[in-house]
Amino acid sequence: MNCQLCGSDRPQLASAQIVPDFMLKYIQDEESGRAVMRVYDDESDQLLQVEEGGIEPDAELVCEACWTTIGEWDRYADRLMYQDSGLVIENMSVGDEESGTAEEAKVIRNVDYGRFKLFQLSLLWRMGASDVIPFEPIDIGIHRQRLAEMLRSRDPGAPEDFPCVMATIAPGGVHFVDFFDVRFWAERDVATTIELVSGGFVFRFFLGREVPKFTDRFALQQNGDLPLLQRHPGQLQGLMKLVGAEATADDA
Ligand SMILES: [Zn+2]
């Protein structure tokens, strides 16, 4: 089996996490890697089902060398998203108050554009290239090859290349980390949207010819500004809430 990123044949393949452990650790048991997922109804908040099962790594995706490279970007993202207390975070004005589209947002300054953008692109490529559950339905079509080329040459591209609009789920300042959801919409070859909710963050990727105009302002900027929209759990459609591995179906 070839590495799907660099194409090398008969390589030592890595055990590759599609969504990095640092975003999944809140919902997975450290030893077993298992998680308990509770699926709630959007409207009524009623519990629909309880599923057990973690998100398995993909053992058929990339070679050890490519995985090492991806790991460098993952480590930077982990520091930025969860550990870096020196971040400059400011409020930003978003949208248009007169038309009622204004909403709360923050911006993180001084982000390393190259490293964080490559992290975002690698996340998108991993979701699009992997066939492990729950990423199997995601199809990024013709974009897959271009993304792989950018990753291989460590080229983060311009802000408008595969823009990703991010949000945090932190109502009232409490960071909601134990949600997981991934969804995928495609309109023929024109526009594809992939949304990942994990570890308290939302990543919404836009691919195709018709990328919405607002991504100009809300994707990671070349000057290091990373806008973060603020989302309430109730604003996320169809969200699966995952609770800690110690929870059981009995206490549902
Ligand atoms: Zn490789």
Tell me about this structure.
Helix 3 (113-129) crosses helix 4 (143-152). The chain has one domain. Strands 2-1-10-6-7-8-5-9-4-3 form a ten-stranded mixed β-sheet. It is 22% helix and 25% strand. The protein has 252 residues and is of the alpha+beta class. The protein is globular and about 55 Å long. The chain has helices spanning 21-24, 64-83, 113-129, 143-152, 215-218; strands spanning 36-40, 47-52, 89-94, 103-108, 164-169, 179-187, 191-198, 201-208, 226-231, 240-243. The chain binds zinc ion. Zinc ion binds next to helix 2. Residues 3, 5-6, 8, 11, 62-63, 65-66 line the site of zinc ion.
What spatial order of strands do you see in the largest sheet?
Answer: 2-1-10-6-7-8-5-9-4-3
Assign the structural class, choosing from mainly alpha, mainly beta, alpha/beta, alpha+beta, or little secondary structure.
alpha+beta
Task: Quote the distance from N terminus to C terminus.
Answer: 43 Å
How much helicity do the residues have? 10-25%
Order of helices and strands: HEEHEEHHEEEEHEE
Q: How many domain units?
A: 1
| Shape assignment | globular
Tell me which ligands are bound. Answer: zinc ion
User: Based on DSSP secondary structure assignment, what is the total number of beta strands?
Assistant: 10
Give the integer mean of the pLDDT values: 81
Give Rg in angstroms: 18 Å
Helix count, per DSSP?
A: 5
Q: Describe the main β-sheet briefly.
A: 10 strands, mixed
Poorly predicted tracts of residues: 238-252
Strand content: 25-35%
